[in-house]
Amino acid sequence: MSEPTVPSSSPRPESAPAALVLGGAGGIGAAVSRRVAENHALTIGYHHHADRAESLAAELRSAGHTVELVESDATTEKGVIRAFDAAEQLGDLATVVDCVGGWGYPRLTELTQEDIDQALALNLRSALLILREAARRVHDGGKVVLLSSAAAEVAPPRQSTYAAAKAGLEAAARVAAKEVAKRGVTVNVVRPGATDTEFMRQVTAPRAVEAMAAGNAMKRLGTPEDVAGAVMTLLSPDADWITGAVLEATGGLR
Ligand SMILES: NC(=O)c1ccc[n+]([C@@H]2O[C@H](COP(=O)([O-])OP(=O)(O)OC[C@H]3O[C@@H](n4cnc5c(N)ncnc54)[C@H](OP(=O)(O)O)[C@@H]3O)[C@@H](O)[C@H]2O)c1
Predict the structure, then answer these.
(1) From 51, 76, 96, 99, mutation site for ligand 1 pocket: most ligand atoms within 8 A of C-beta
(2) What is the DSSP letter of 115?
(3) Ligand 1 pocket, residues with Cβ under 6 angstroms
(4) Which residues are known catalytic residues?
């Protein structure tokens, strides 16, 4: 694979390759951003929580990293284009990670059309828009990683919309991997199991959290850093020959 390059005409010949982490200030996203910032000029996408993004950016800048923020609604075409435009300001785009997503626990019998549309927009439309922009803009030899969920495979009760959306994300990533392969770009998916984030604890009953922690081989919740480690594995040069793959980061769920 060709290494990330900076054109000789660039005003930043010494700079690190550029990366975009969408949803990059969230629970898992922040752990990913901390790792990606180590060797990239990083743009972090956020939407609802500007304060959280500002505080992460301040932390990373004070550690000497190049970090910019972009407010971007990833469920919209305009928002995703805006995020990629911002990321390209820092150089040739080598790396994109999609950490955008979320879920509730609607019973099938109570599912509304709005629930369906919201879940698909947040978890699937965003991923398709991100894949499209990545296919257009990530430079040759670059890497794209998207976060799915064990729900896509395990099909847990009350997760019909989320499981369907994440299964769709995985299918789209496999297609994208084929379309960009001729440029040496890889597209892969990390499939986390239950991971200890503020959002997960907000939406999940404590008893269900305990059951999820007991449900894998390691008998604990994943940490955001566990998941970031899986993302970094797929971003490393050792993963140049891995594309269209789903990497489970679940502590051994089955
Ligand atoms: N935690 C788990 O147990 C678990 C398990 C499996 C998979 N996952 C997946 O891992 C990812 C991160 O989850 P998390 O637990 O870390 O939750 P989180 O902290 O809520 O992260 C979700 C991220 O999505 C962003 N986001 C939400 N709506 C957006 C929108 N319309 N446009 C742009 N960004 C938006 C949020 O940013 P703002 O808040 O700034 O909008 C946030 O950074 C999600 O894809 C989730 O499905 C999580």
Answers:
(1) 99
(2) H
(3) 23, 25-29, 46-49, 72-75, 99-102, 122, 147, 149, 192, 194-195, 197, 199-200
(4) 162
Would you say 94 and 21 are in contact if contact means Cβ atoms under 8 Å apart?
no
Tell me which H or E stretch contains 187.
Answer: strand 186-192
Strand partners, 222: 195
DSSP assignment letter at 1: -
Extract the residue ranges of the chain whose pLDDT is less than 70.
Answer: 1-14
Give 94's Cβ-side CA count (13 Å radius): 22
So what CATH class is 18-249?
A: alpha beta
User: Which pLDDT tens digit goes with each residue over 43-99?
Assistant: 999 999 999 999 999 999 999 999 999 999 999 999 999 999 999 999 999 999 999
Cα(78) to centroid of ligand 1, in Å? Answer: 19
* 3-class DSSP assignment, residue 57: helix
Domain boundaries, the chain: 18-249
Q: C-alpha angle with apex 28: 161 to 87, nearest 5 degrees?
A: 100
Exposure b/e, 159-183, CB count within 10 A at least 16 = b: bbbbbbbbbbbbebbeebbeebeee
The burial of 254, by beta-carbon neighbours within 10 Å (0-12 exposed, 13-18 middle, 19 or more buried), is given as exposed
Residue 14 has a pLDDT of: 56
Spatial distance between the Cα atoms of 108 and 141, rounded to a whole number of angstroms: 43
pTM for this model (two decimals): 0.95
Residue 237 DSSP label: G
66 Cα–ligand 1 center, Å: 23
